[in-house]
């Protein structure tokens, strides 16, 4: 049966395969109560050695990195498009946007090389009024609820790294808080 | 979508639907000019304007609301008999629908243009002017009807008017009473209406319930008819209804009055004292119960049932829902493909009996799945189909008006209104068709006198014909007018610098005629009143091309012109050619591929470093896909040139490989990527790899620079 | 326990608009229908605390519905609002004479309907 292994794996491959254990996306809060400011709920993920966080309310889902198709005449940070249950979604390279890298990850097209992609790599699919889009990250960690006291304004000198709206700090953990619209450009 | 957005899109959808019905009904009214007005039709039109006004008001669309209001008032006067259906009244009502449609279109794009605004304001003022002209008041015949005041109190103004009209025409009025079970009274009532309507008019339906009776319900139908009582009784046979005739208090007043009697000339009948206790209905009526009659042929009742039920048998579905279902089916087909492959390789790789049997079983089942999925796919495509008749009706109205405005006499002959096309295509089609027809009216059909002088009938003839040919629909717009003035076309082409004088002389007739589709080419001398701007045939061509369609023209001087438009039946599934360029795969809709040639380097010419390819006497711009998309130079091995064409333009597109043909479901790339030139969407070929679909129109447009156009012609 | 409001209006967009305004009042549930006939069927099956009806409808008119409702002992005291449009004064007057307590002229602000609901439901 081993000769079918690859086919079976492909057949049963599911881009929406179970998320890493322990990660449960809470229901987004539709109507935050005006009386008590809700904690800032954010999905944390890793890029290189830095930890970042995006608002959970704007995360549609987290998926494995499906095969990507290059899009000609598109900006470099667009890695390509992926097919999510019949929907075509653009996938952006966050590292390029945040200037953690100078070249896009070479994971689309005929010379795609996915060896540089860590096993933990995922795409986070974000809701956006201009059309939903996905970003590639090295790993997804968990969801944190940041209280207002745990949030600081962005440090000076980060202006060139667009989309950073602040820092979250709890004990020795630090998250760079991102504004998804700015990050997607 | 937000709640607000959803509410708004429902508002737009409902308004469009109301307008469509309004247009259809007004067409009937328009055609029946001068005859007796059908009260039900008129009331339907009134209700449409009324609903639209209310809707528009709620959604803050003031321009729509104001115009609908003015129309509603005029229609109200019309149905209440206060205004006559004169030509100016009917003309302006017909115009109202056009303007409302234009306003709705602007509302859906969230824009407001001044030109349309002032047209709407002017029209509303005209409607109000027409509403002022009231017909003389009449003696209130209703006062003569023996009807208890409690009943009279629940009539709307309109119902009272219908009662008066029935009295004026000498109809007999009845109260038809029937009891039903509460659970299914609507069915019984529909049946009863079906028996009554062919013989007269159901003016009002009054429900009543006996105290304590929670399961039954009674209805009094106030009914007017000219037929003798026994016919009514025969019609009621088999229904639970009884009828009683409503008497008149002053039988002498029954003589039909001269229509529009001037006020004062008819002596006013003594009114019944307001305070007087009404008589119970019984004494003044002859109470009759439906009896079995000897020749009781029951009139068709199925009709009426259908008419009431039809309200619930159709549903309105957002086309995006159908799209997502179509996507789901596409996904299922892919899964099925994987299953089939699994089954096949299991069969090949194993000589063991059980495994082989298992593989055969799996193959059989996946075939069955495939057939069912194809059925579902077909069903979904069918659900998107609407008859072209919808557009035809709009055009018929428009043609009448345009012809009047242009001072031309013509008849419009329509055929093939039953041919069905994808809803999206039908919607996009009305503009280009309208411009083509307008072109025929403005430039094709001659003035009546000119036609007579040439021995043609005074009345011009424009025909619009639709025929289905396999997966395509052929639409023909032809006129029996003057035909294209080919010499004038050549002259203009030279004036516009499109051709040199020599080229113009040598251009074959067919190609000369096709020059009228060139952007900026227009022999029109007047700006169109209709759209407020001159729209050339180049725009028509672009519109048709964006629907993956083609347009062509044939004309004979003196005998008329025919435009031929070919369209795909649906945009959702297209046949595509799958090609490769530097290792990438792309799909090209086959509707845009005219020819596939194998290319040898020696055939390619170069002019000012632009590559050209001669194909059968025509020199086409040559575009290489791989470098165009920045994928590198492309392979050096054997290449293929695809002749791409949309409307009149042709280019040769060079690709490295041909992978074959396939039916594909084109999915949009979404807002973020929609600006990328040359890509119209994406599709899935069944190997999990998303493949981009080329936008043939854009590729052609980008490669056919103006200076190449003359060359291409 | 919440209040139940019946909305009778043949235009879907209007109906949804009114339903949204009604449900904006906490503790109130809207049950809406597109026709007088359907309303006749719904009335005995529920206990509505308030009824809102359009006048111009294709099967039975709103006045007939008001008349019918007001004759039913279960609904004799149920407040009833008319939704009407400008220029239909006679119909409106008749509706009020038949027992409707308020009328709203389209287009109206959702807030004005909310205010009336609160008043008649004692909220």
Helical stretch tally of chain B = 23
Rg result of chain A: 17 Å
What is Rg of chain B?
Answer: 33 Å
Q: What portion of residues of chain B is helical?
A: 40-55%
Order of helices and strands of chain A: HEEEEEHEEEEEEH
Shape of chain B: globular
| Distinct helical segment count of chain A | 3
| Beta strand count of chain B | 23
Strand adjacency order, main sheet of chain A: 8-1-2-11-10-9
Low-confidence stretches of chain A: 1-36
Helix content of chain A: 10-25%
Measured distance between first and last alpha carbons of chain A: 48 Å
How much strand content do the residues of chain A show?
35-45%
State the separation between the terminal residues of chain B, measured CA to CA: 47 Å
Label the structural class of chain A: mainly beta
Shape of chain A, please? Answer: globular
Look at the helices and sheets of chain B and give the structural class. Answer: alpha+beta
Per DSSP E runs of 2 or more residues, the count of β-strands of chain A stands at: 11
The most extensive contact between chains is: B-C, 41 and 40 residues
**Biggest beta-sheet profile of chain A:** 6 strands, mixed
Strand content of chain B: 15-25%
Question: Could you characterize what this model shows?
Answer:
Chain A has helices at residues 2-12, 94-97, 180-184; strands spanning 40-47, 50-55, 59-63, 78-84, 87-93, 122-126, 133-137, 139-146, 151-152, 164-170, 173-178. With 185 residues, chain A is mostly beta strands. In chain A, a hairpin with a 2-residue loop joins strand 4 (78-84) and strand 5. Chain A is globular. Helix content of chain B is 45%, strand content 22%. Chain B contains 23 helices and 23 strands. In chain B, the strands form five sheets. Chain B has a six-stranded mixed β-sheet. Chain B has a five-stranded antiparallel β-sheet with strand order 2-3-1-4-5, with helices on both faces. Chain B has a five-stranded mixed β-sheet with strand order 7-9-10-12-11. In chain B, helix 4 (87-108) packs antiparallel against helix 5 and helix 15 (423-444) packs antiparallel against helix 20 (537-546). The relative contact order of chain B is 0.06. In chain C, 44% of the residues lie in helices and 23% in strands. Chain C has a five-stranded parallel β-sheet, with helices on both faces. In chain C, strand 3, helix 3 (62-71) and strand 4 form a beta-alpha-beta unit. In chain C, helix 1 crosses helix 5 and helix 3 packs parallel to helix 4. The two termini of chain C are 13 Å apart. Chains in contact: A-B, B-C. The interface between B and C is large, with 41 and 40 residues.
């Amino acid at each position: 049966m081993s000769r079918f292994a690859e086919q079976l794996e492909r057949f049963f491959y599911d881009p929406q395969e179970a998320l890493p254990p322990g990660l449960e996306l809470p229901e987004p809060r539709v109507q935050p109560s005006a009386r008590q400011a809700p904690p800032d709920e954010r999905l944390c993920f890793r890029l290189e050695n830095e930890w970042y966080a995006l608002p959970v309310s704007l995360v549609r889902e987290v998926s494995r990195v499906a095969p990507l198709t290059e899009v000609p005449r598109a900006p470099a940070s667009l890695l390509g498009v992926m097919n999510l249950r019949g929907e075509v979604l653009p996938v952006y390279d966050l590292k390029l946007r945040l200037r953690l890298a100078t070249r896009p990850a070479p994971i689309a097209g005929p010379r795609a090389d996915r060896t540089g992609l860590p096993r933990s790599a995922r795409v986070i699919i974000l809701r956006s009024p201009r059309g939903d889009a996905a970003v590639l990250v090295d790993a997804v960690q968990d969801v944190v609820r940041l209280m207002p006291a745990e949030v600081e304004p962005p440090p000076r000198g980060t202006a060139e790294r667009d989309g950073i709206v602040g820092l979250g700090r709890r004990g020795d953990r630090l998250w760079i808080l991102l504004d998804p619209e700015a990050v997607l450009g | 979508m937000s709640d607000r957005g959803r509410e708004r899109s429902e508002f737009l959808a409902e308004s469009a639907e109301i307008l469509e019905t309004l247009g259809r009904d007004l067409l009937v009214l328009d055609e029946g000019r001068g005859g007796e007005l059908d009260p039900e039709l008129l009331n339907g039109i009134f209700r449409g304007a009324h609903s639209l006004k209310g809707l528009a008001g709620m959604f803050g669309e003031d321009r729509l609301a104001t115009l609908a209001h003015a129309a509603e008032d005029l229609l109200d006067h019309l149905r209440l008999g206060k205004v006559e259906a004169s030509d100016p009244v009917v003309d302006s009502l017909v115009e109202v629908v056009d303007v409302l449609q234009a306003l709705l279109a602007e509302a859906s794009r969230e824009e407001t243009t001044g030109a349309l605004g002032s047209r709407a304001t002017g029209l509303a003022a005209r409607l109000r002017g027409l509403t002022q002209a009231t017909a003389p008041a009449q003696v209130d015949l209703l006062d003569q009807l023996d009807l208890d005041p409690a009943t009279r109190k629940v009539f709307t103004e309109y119902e009272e008017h219908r009662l008066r009209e029935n009295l004026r025409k000498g109809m007999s009025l009845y109260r038809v009473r029937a009891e039903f079970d509460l659970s299914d009274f609507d069915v019984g009532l529909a049946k009863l209406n079906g028996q009554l309507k062919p013989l007269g008019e159901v003016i009002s339906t009054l429900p009543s319930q006996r105290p304590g009776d929670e399961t039954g319900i009674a209805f009094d139908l106030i009914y007017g008819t000219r037929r003798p009582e026994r016919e009514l009784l025969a019609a009621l046979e088999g229904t639970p209804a009884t009828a009683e005739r409503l008497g008149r208090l002053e039988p002498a007043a029954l003589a039909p009055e001269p229509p529009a009697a001037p006020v004062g000339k008819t002596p006013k009948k003594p009114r019944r004292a307001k305070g007087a206790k009404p008589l119970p209905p019984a004494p003044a009526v002859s109470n009759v119960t439906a009896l079995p009659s000897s020749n009781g042929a029951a009139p068709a009742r199925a009709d009426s049932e259908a008419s009431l039920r039809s309200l619930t048998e159709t549903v309105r579905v957002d086309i995006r829902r159908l799209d997502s279902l179509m996507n789901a089916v596409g996904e299922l087909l892919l899964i099925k493909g994987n299953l089939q492959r699994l089954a096949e390789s299991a069969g090949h790789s194993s000589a063991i009996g059980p495994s082989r049997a298992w593989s055969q079983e799996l193959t059989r089942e996946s075939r069955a799945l495939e057939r069912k999925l194809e059925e579902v796919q077909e069903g979904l495509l069918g659900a998107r189909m609407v008859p072209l008749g919808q557009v035809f009706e709009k055009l018929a109205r428009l043609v009448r008006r345009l012809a009047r405005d242009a001072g031309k006499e013509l008849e419009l002959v329509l055929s093939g209104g039953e041919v069905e096309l994808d809803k999206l295509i039908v919607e996009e089609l009305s503009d280009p068709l309208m411009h083509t027809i307008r072109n025929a009216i403005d430039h094709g059909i001659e003035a009546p006198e000119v036609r007579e002088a040439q021995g043609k009938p005074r009345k011009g003839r424009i025909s619009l014909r639709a025929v289905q040919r396999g997966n395509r629909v052929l639409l023909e717009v032809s006129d029996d007018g003057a035909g294209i003035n080919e010499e004038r076309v050549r002259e203009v082409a030279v004036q516009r610098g499109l051709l040199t004088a020599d080229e113009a002389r040598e251009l074959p007739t067919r190609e000369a005629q096709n020059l009228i589709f060139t952007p900026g080419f227009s022999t029109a001398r007047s700006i169109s009143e209709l759209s407020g701007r001159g729209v050339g045939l180049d725009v028509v061509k672009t519109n048709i091309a964006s629907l993956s369609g083609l347009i062509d023209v044939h004309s004979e001087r003196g005998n008329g012109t025919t435009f031929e438009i070919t369209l795909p039946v649906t945009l959702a599934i297209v046949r595509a050619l799958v090609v490769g360029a530097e290792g990438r795969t792309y799909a090209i809709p086959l509707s845009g591929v005219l020819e596939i040639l194998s290319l040898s380097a020696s055939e390619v010419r170069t002019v000012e470093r632009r590559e050209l390819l001669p194909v059968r006497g025509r020199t086409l711009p040559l575009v290489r896909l791989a470098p165009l998309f920045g994928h590198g130079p492309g392979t050096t091995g054997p290449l293929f040139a695809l002749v791409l064409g949309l409307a009149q333009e042709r280019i040769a597109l060079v690709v490295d490989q041909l992978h074959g043909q396939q039916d594909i479901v084109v999915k949009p790339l979404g807002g973020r990527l929609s600006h990328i030139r040359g890509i119209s969407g994406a599709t899935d070929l069944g190997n999990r790899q998303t493949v981009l679909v080329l936008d043939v129109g854009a590729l052609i447009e980008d490669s056919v620079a103006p200076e190449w156009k003359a060359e291409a012609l | 326990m919440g209040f139940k409001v019946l909305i009778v209006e043949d235009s879907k967009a209007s109906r949804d608009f009114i339903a949204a305004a009604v449900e904006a009042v906490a503790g109130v549930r809207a049950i809406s229908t597109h026709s007088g006939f359907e309303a006749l069927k719904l009335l005995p099956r529920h206990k509505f605390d308030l009824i809102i009806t359009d006048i111009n409808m294709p099967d039975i008119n709103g006045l007939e519905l008001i008349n019918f409702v007001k004759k039913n002992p279960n609904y004799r005291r149920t407040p009833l609002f008319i939704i009407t449009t400008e220029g239909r004064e006679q119909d409106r007057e008749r509706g009020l004479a038949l027992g409707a307590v308020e009328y709203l002229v389209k287009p109206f602000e959702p807030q004005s309907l909310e205010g009336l609901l609160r008043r008649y439901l004692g909220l």
